[in-house]
Amino acid sequence: MAAAGSALRVHAARFGPGQELLGCLQTFVEERRLRAPFIITCVGSVTKATLRLANATATNTNEVLHLSGRFEIVSLVGTLNRDAHVHISLSDAEGRTVGGHVLGDLEIFTTAEVVIGEAADLHFSREMDQQTGFPELVVQTRSEVTG
Fold it and tell me: What gap in Å lies between CA 66 and CA 98, rounded to an integer?
């Protein structure tokens, strides 16, 4: 189990209509050279989303849902290192919700207001985990990475 404590820095951004949210977040992180970023909160709406569903495995990653329409973002969580691991919950016009692992294609409808945290003393990366078959989070202190 990887665990460590850290001071917190907070960043905020607003993205607009037609932008692809996951790509915008990754660019935001790269431009600011954030080493251990994560999503604190997000509100907004999208017109598209591509999600991997919960029953996908390392050998069967084809359980994908392509959404098109108008959806409110009711939750967006995850880590935003180079190989981001982000999950989303969306609600449709009738209030029905759907969620999953974000593969991309999160086209913003009106806005996406995102608060991003950075664990200032840590560094996030991903390494393939033989047990799960997926690249999993590796948490290191910054001194371990630069040391």
Answer: 11
Kindly report, residue by residue over 44-70, the tens digit of the pLDDT. Answer: 999 999 999 887 666 776 789 999 999
pLDDT digits (tens, 9 = 90+) for 132-144: 888 899 999 887 8
User: What 3-state class would DSSP assign to 91?
Assistant: strand
Q: Domains of the chain: which residue ranges? A: 8-121
> 146 Cβ partners below 8 Å, 6+ apart?
none
Among 3.30.420.140, 3.30.1330.80, 3.90.850.10, 3.40.50.170, name the CATH number for the domain at 8-121: 3.30.1330.80
On the question of pLDDT at 83 being above 90, the answer is: no
Tokens (6 digits) for 105: 């294609």
Give CA–CA dist 105/85, Å, rounded: 15
Model confidence, pTM = 0.88
Phi/psi for 133 (5° steps) reads: 80, 10
Mean pLDDT, rounded, for 121-125: 92
- C-beta separation of 106 from 26 below 8 A: no
Unique residue bearing structure tokens 């329409």: 69
